[in-house]
């Protein structure tokens, strides 16, 4: 294998471009940050990139995201064939994390074959947090390998500390009376633990803990935050006395990496409607690509929006009869506008037609959040959505549903200070219309909302500075590139 970084023909020739292979697990929450990282590696740092994806068939938006990466041709995208999960013995009722991890593990032969079919072998492998079973392929190829965690530093700290908590804590985490201590970090309230930690007898808990052990096996961790957002937690992750012993490789902050705003993304009708509204007067309501709620909660939310007498754009999805992440693998398959309206209070659309706009199933989220008339975001607190809100200077009503969203909601409300939230977790109890009315008015018209808007605009400025040349995230990716070159040289020397 040839690991030369420079052509041997002439010392005057330009250095060879590093080739990176990135692997994304299914779902927009993983695909978007992987694609955006790839674009940065190409545009800012001179990499050649091939992205390997396992489509979830969950959303038409996936095809659009992939299309944005290959037109204009910045990078190659290769779709891997979906593995046969029934043949792998996976129950159709398995939890989302179990499904994701088994899907990724079973895709190993296909990924290995796809890498072998490349014109030239990659110089570096980057997998996302559900793809750590593929780090062994980096070992086989003798190339540096990194794990990309498209979330925040507090989530990462809990994740890589969970094997220790597994040994220290007896009984269920949610039954603990004291917060879970993580060295150097804000303690985690038992009710805020990530979904796989809710039931220690479920397969996804075992999968999650095993995954956490594998993350430090990479040569470093890339994190979709910037230094100023979580300085103390990042310091703890890098401190050998605290969490440093868990993660031997460096932690590179590369965020905020989000979808770019598209000039024509809003469409004529939506743009015309938003243009008519006063500045920062509209609440955007959306629960991401996989979030759903019960029929009863949907009705209360509708009444809360109507009672608030505030403007809104609502991405409406059919209510769930199962779990709050019920549509993660099949979002977008059901519900036209007329069918969706039947789940709302009678005549709701008629009564709110002057102040509200309902978008069936999906909306161009970044383009909406970037519009000057939008002043608040009622969000499920997925990390993509969180970053999109901050980068566009929009404060949030935190409405966590599943995955790590409860943790994110606590981070946004208590530490970063750019969100408010219901008194009780929406996943535990129906949030009533009066409380929803109060939350909406607080974020859009009350003094508290104005203060949060000022705070989030400060963060927006800080995020913009991190990404430009000499900014912390730009320089962090530059350092990762230099570390890559050094590791390639060391591997070559060892062979």
TrEMBL record:
* Gene Ontology MF: a single term: glycosyltransferase activity
Query: Which EC number(s) are documented for this chain?
Result: 2.4.1.-
Q: Which residues form a coiled coil?
A: none
Q: Which UniProt keywords apply?
A: Glycosyltransferase, Transferase
Instruction: Look up keyword rRNA processing and say if it applies.
Output: no
Q: Supply the InterPro entries for this chain.
A: UDP_glucos_trans, UDP_glycos_trans_CS
- Keyword Glycosyltransferase among UniProt keywords: yes
Q: Which family does the record assign?
A: Belongs to the UDP-glycosyltransferase family.
PANTHER family associated with the record: GLYCOSYLTRANSFERASE-RELATED, UDP-GLYCOSYLTRANSFERASE 72E1
Q: Report what the protein is called.
A: Glycosyltransferase
Which species is this record about?
Answer: Eucalyptus globulus
**Taxonomy of the source species:** Eukaryota, Viridiplantae, Streptophyta, Embryophyta, Tracheophyta
């Amino acid at each position: 294998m040839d690991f030369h970084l420079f052509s041997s023909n002439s010392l005057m020739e330009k250095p060879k471009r590093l080739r990176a292979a990135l692997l994304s697990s299914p779902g927009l929450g993983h695909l978007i940050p992987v694609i955006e990282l790839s674009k940065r590696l190409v545009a800012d740092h001179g990499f050649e990139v091939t992205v390997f994806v396992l489509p979830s068939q969950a959303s038409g938006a996936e095809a659009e995201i992939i299309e944005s990466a290959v037109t204009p041709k910045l990078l190659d995208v290769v779709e891997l064939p979906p593995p046969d999960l029934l043949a792998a013995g996976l129950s159709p009722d398995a939890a989302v994390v179990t499904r994701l991890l088994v899907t990724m593990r079973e895709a190993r032969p296909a990924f290995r074959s796809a890498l072998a079919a490349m014109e030239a072998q990659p110089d570096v492998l980057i997998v996302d947090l559900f793809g750590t079973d593929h780090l062994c392929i980096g070992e086989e190829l003798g190339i540096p390998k990194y794990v990309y965690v498209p979330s925040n530093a507090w989530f990462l700290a809990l994740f890589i500390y969970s094997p220790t908590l597994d040994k220290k804590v007896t009984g269920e985490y949610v039954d603990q009376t004291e917060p879970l201590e993580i060295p150097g970090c804000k303690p985690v309230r038992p009710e805020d633990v990530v979904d796989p930690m809710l039931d220690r007898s479920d397969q996804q808990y075992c999968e999650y803990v095993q995954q956490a052990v594998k993350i430090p096996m990479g040569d470093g961790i890339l994190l979709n935050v910037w230094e100023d957002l979580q300085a103390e937690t990042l310091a703890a992750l890098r401190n050998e006395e605290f969490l440093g012993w868990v993660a031997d490789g460096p932690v590179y902050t590369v965020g905020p990496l989000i979808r770019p705003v598209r000039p024509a993304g809003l469409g004529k009708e939506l743009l015309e409607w938003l243009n008519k509204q006063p500045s920062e007067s509209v609440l955007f309501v959306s629960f991401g690509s996989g979030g759903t709620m019960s029929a009863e909660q949907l009705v209360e939310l509708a009444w809360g929006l109507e009672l608030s007498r505030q403007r809104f754009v609502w991405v409406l999805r059919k209510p769930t009869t199962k779990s709050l992440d019920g549509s993660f693998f099949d979002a977008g398959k059901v519900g036209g506008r007329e069918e969706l309206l039947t789940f709302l209070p009678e005549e709701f659309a008629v009564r709110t037609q002057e102040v509200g706009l309902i978008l069936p199933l999906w909306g161009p989220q970044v383009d909406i959040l970037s519009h000057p008339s939008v002043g608040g975001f009622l969000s499920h607190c997925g990390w993509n959505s969180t970053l999109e809100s901050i980068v566009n200077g929009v404060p949030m009503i935190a409405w966590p549903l599943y995955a790590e969203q409860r943790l994110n909601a606590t981070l946004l409300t208590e530490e970063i200070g750019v969100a408010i939230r219901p008194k009780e977790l929406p996943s535990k109890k129906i949030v009533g219309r009066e409380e929803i009315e109060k939350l909406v008015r607080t974020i859009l018209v009350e003094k508290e909302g104005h203060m949060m808007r000022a705070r989030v605009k400060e963060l927006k400025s800080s995020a913009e500075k991190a990404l430009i040349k000499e900014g912390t995230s730009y320089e962090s990716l530059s350092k990762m590139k230099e570390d890559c070159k050094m590791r390639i040289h060391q591997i070559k020397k060892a062979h």
